[in-house]
Design a protein that fits this description.
Layout lengths: L11 E5 L6 H8 L11 E2 L2 E2 L5 H8 L2 E4 L11 H11 L4 H14 L15 H13 L5 E5 L7 H12 L7 E6 L10 E7 L2 E2 L3 E3 L9
Parallel strand pairs: 1-6, 1-7, 4-5, 5-6
Antiparallel strand pairs: 2-3, 7-8, 7-9
Helix pairs in contact: 3-4, 3-5, 4-5, 5-6
Length: 212
Amino acid sequence: MGIDFEARAGEVNFITGPAAAGKTTFTHLLRLALPPRSGRSVILGVDLMRARAREIADAKRRVGYVAENPVFIEQWSTFDNVAMPLRMLGQKPRDYAEDVRELVEFVGLGGAAELPVEKLSGAERRRAAIARALAAKPNLILADDPTAGMSPADGRRIVRLLSEMRRVGAGVVIASQDDTLCDVSPMWVWRIDRGRLSQPEQTEAADAEAYE
């Protein structure tokens, strides 16, 4: 890849390009699932070419990730799936219950909190994945093609939800083939092709709903 990229706290970065252009590989690099082979890569202040394993593991915990096809424990409730990252950190239900309920409400799944995830629609599952990615209050939020297979209206709602995280100081990176989503929120738009990124363009939100 020929990459010169920076994502700042409180900003949304939207990466678009054709299929097999390198979007997913780039997302995996940002979430520390793939090690960089050359150059310099600093994620959340950690220089990956020099960092120790513990430093990299600590940085991973500060990254929230929404996959194209999120995986859940299907028989668990929406609430329990969203709470999973906090349980893995050793927190008790009494410590996280209120925060998780607020997250489930925030993504519009308040009425489905106790439903098993297997009962949710595709768009609802993506909302649950966003809530789960936000549960540990990450500094960096990554989404790989989060609107795949959705209607245009549902896709815009998902990007709007992700973009709202800039308001709490998180850096947001969204990768998608659908460049019609670029006006959902103020964002930097990058185009990738054959592993190379173009210089970004800054957009303003043309969609009034982005501010609701």
